[in-house]
């Protein structure tokens, strides 16, 4: 199916296209029309997507401090600097820890909420709206509420207020590094923002499961609850689950907003994009910044290709 | 997967159980199980609404109420005058940042819809011999999320001398391979007969597109528009990198600056946050149908 999808526009298979040919001399018409439709987008893609990447690859082999013009070729030095033990590798470790928390927890909570919503009859639209509403908020707004109101380190923060009812002294949530309490703040903010989004994806997946499968499972003696989930629901959600896991991983890889607004340039929790932001915008070091961007792009391409999703796209869509 | 299979109405109202069916729907389980489900959902609802409650509470309180030694669930007196204070505070200039955000989000949404829908239609329908190769060249760009290449994009914008301009923030975001991909997939499933009738009647490709295809694709355009608008309004990294001067701040960059610098009062900051989400809550309330469809579309396929 994948090939036929991709080739569809190029294969004149239907009577209509022979009708088009009968009207004579339309080959150049087809070419012209195609460029009229696709040309503006393609020019923009070349200038604002392809050209920047090529430029950055070139710049990454140059010393480029306070300049974006390649002028001092230094070979692989920028890459060697970044891949030595140091802040860039630390940022990849930070990402790994972050992903190890946020991916499984978001996955479990969003599938859990979707299953709960799917089994109730009344007020389903209400609950779905409530869980989906945070999608309307930005990471900046969430950071603001989390930093100043919920996890404020002084006594008027909500978390510390609740703890004080049980006699627990104030906790400096964002400044405590051992144990690393700041992860609670970072992870819970992102959970609040994105669980509803993935819940909608799982709900859509659940709605596509044919009721006959459940009836068949019941006839075959599967118990309601865990057995039905294990042998019917979860296998049927496989495509959705794989997609959600990949989306969560890619989203975590690009984490910037909440780290920047909650922790700034803190060396103990600086994900890759925050490190690159301070390298490029703070130190004006575009050579190392470009090399870092190239490494990050390559890493994510490897993950995506390993997933085989890009070339499964045509298939998934049919 | 076709467009209809993710029709949002299915999410809202699942098919009613067939009348006279004897067994309970096995997905739903026992009454006790349902009670447990409602309790869990109720608790989750409280947790999910707490941040909204805090925004509204703090926005309409005095700073003394917010920071007082005992927790105040509601402001002692609702401070409507906080609105006047926020909008007239010369050090905040929230109106300018709201205007920047609105201009950016509207133009980015309109531009992406126009460019990507045209390109997606061309790729899906016009039998040009290199169409497949060009489609692959677009597909390759989907592997790299735009945020990862913000430094390369900044370099091009700075060469164009577009740093600290609105076009510097808007134009590079107009060419989304992903949106084009979504439109192509959508147009592949659009009924061919309609356009062919139009073209036989003498309309060219463009005529058929504007007179037949677009008017019959309102729901899909709306879904993509809502998703794009929200993403654009909430975007942070790119506007932060390009709009460095305070006259170019979007509302997100402005909030972030006040949060980091802590130069303004708490109640003003929270009121600004409330004002910044208000447009999206309106979009959410009135266009939720398209929003849910958009998420189901873009999420699964992306």
From TrEMBL, chain A:
Per the UniProt entry, what are the Gene Ontology biological process annotations, in alphabetical order?
transmembrane transport
Describe the location of the ABC transmembrane type-1 domain by residue ranges: 92-307
Report the superkingdom from the record: Bacteria
**InterPro entries linked:** ABC_transporter_permease, MetI-like, MetI-like_sf
Coiled-coil zones: none
Task: Give the GO cellular component terms, alphabetically.
Answer: plasma membrane
Compartmental location: Cell membrane
**Lipid bilayer topology:** Multi-pass membrane protein
What parts of the sequence cross the membrane?
30-53, 92-118, 125-146, 181-204, 237-256, 286-306
Q: What broad class describes the main subcellular location of this protein? A: membrane
Q: What protein name does the entry list?
A: Multiple sugar transport system permease protein
Supply the alphabetized keyword list.
Cell membrane, Membrane, Sugar transport, Transmembrane, Transmembrane helix, Transport
Q: SUPFAM superfamilies recorded for this chain? A: MetI-like
TrEMBL record, chain B:
- What PROSITE patterns does this protein map onto? ABC_TM1 (PS50928)
Compartments, record wording: Cell membrane
The signal peptide stretch is: none
One Gene Ontology BP term is:
transmembrane transport
Task: Enumerate the spans annotated as ABC transmembrane type-1 domain.
Answer: 98-288
InterPro entries in the cross-refs: MetI-like, MetI-like_sf
Q: What keywords were assigned to this record?
A: Cell membrane, Membrane, Sugar transport, Transmembrane, Transmembrane helix, Transport
Q: Which Pfam families match?
A: BPD_transp_1
- Residues of the region (Disordered) are 1-30
Family assignment?
A: Belongs to the binding-protein-dependent transport system permease family.
* Name of the protein described by the UniProt record: Multiple sugar transport system permease protein
What's the source species for this entry? Microlunatus kandeliicorticis
